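agent: user wants the structure for Chemotaxis protein CheW from Drouetiella hepatica Uher 2000/2452. delegating to structure tool.
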Amino acid sequence: MAQSQDDSHNHAHLLQLAYQGDARAIATLMNRHLKRQRMLAQVGWKGSGLHVFIEAIQAPNPEPLMSSIYRTVLRLQLSSLKTLKVSCRQIGTPHIAWSQERSIAPVQKAMAQTSGIQSGIQSSDRPLPDRPSPAPTSLIDWLNQKAQADLSALIQPISAVDADQTELRFLRFSFSRSETALLPLASIRQVMKVHPQRILPVPDMPTSVLGICNFRGEILWLVDLGLQIGFQGVAQQNALSSQAAYANHSEQFLGWMAIVIQAQGKSLGLIVPEIIDIESHNPRQLQSAAIDLFPPTLLPFIQGYLVRSSSPVLDANALIADSRLQVHAA
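agent: tool returned. relaying C-alpha cells verbatim.
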C-alpha cells in the first residue's frame, strides 16, 4: 500500500512538472507508453515551440503517432506554446525518417472549443533546454477526469504490481557471426553508421582500435568490439564485402554499425556487425556470469547473464576502462 501511494505521489509530481512545461517530465510520461512500442522520445523547447524527437527500431507511420502526441500535448494547456513539431529517426540510420509540425491555438480559444488541454513540443538531434510555463489552475480538476488521449499511459499512475515488475531496456546486437549480447540503453548515447573513410587511424594502438572520428564536435575512439573481447572483428568479416559494395554504384555502402557508449564521463564507439532489437528485462533476473559458460577473454566485460534470454549483458564501464586500449589516457 505504501509503495502504491509513493508511486501515485511521484506520478502526480511528474504531472505537475509537465503542466509547468518541464521537458524532461513530458518525455518521461510519454516514454511510459512509447517504450512498449520500442520507441524513445526526447522533448525540448525552442522559443515557443515544443519539439518531440522520436527514435524507433522501425519508423512508424507519421499520422497516427503525430495525432496521438498532438492530442496528448493539448491536455497540458501550456499558455506559451504555439507550435508542436514531431520528428522520427530509425535507429541505425543517419537521416530523419519524417517530421511534421502543427500550430497550437491559444489556450483560451482552445478551452472555449473543447474540454481538452493544450501544449507543444519541438525536436532536434539533441535534447533542447527545458522551458517552464505557468501551471494551469485547473490541474486538480483535470487529474480527476478520465483520460481520452491515445497516449493514455501519460495519466495512469504506476500500480504496485507494475512497480514490482519494473523492467529495464537493453539493446541487442551481434558481436560475431553467431553470438549476440545486450547493453543497457542507459549506457548508450547513440547508434549510428560510420564509414571507414571517416575513421582516422592512430599508430601504435592495439588491433582492436580502429581509430578516431568526429562525433558531435568531440573526438570519439572507435573499437572493433569483436576483437576487443577475443572474437573475430567486424572489420575483418566485412572488409571485402564492404569495399565491393562501396565500389558498386548500384549498392551504396553506408558504413559499419557503431554503438556509442558512455560511462564515468567517457565515451567509446563500438563497431558491431548488426543491431538487432530493443528488449525489456527484469534486472532481478540478472545473474553472475559462470566462469565455465564464457571464454576468459569475454568474462571481464560481462556485467551479468540473463538466463531466460540466454544473453550476456556487457558492462560499458569495463569496456571503456579496458587497460589495453588506453584511449582516454592523459
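agent: one observation worth passing along. The chain is about 25% helix and 30% strand.
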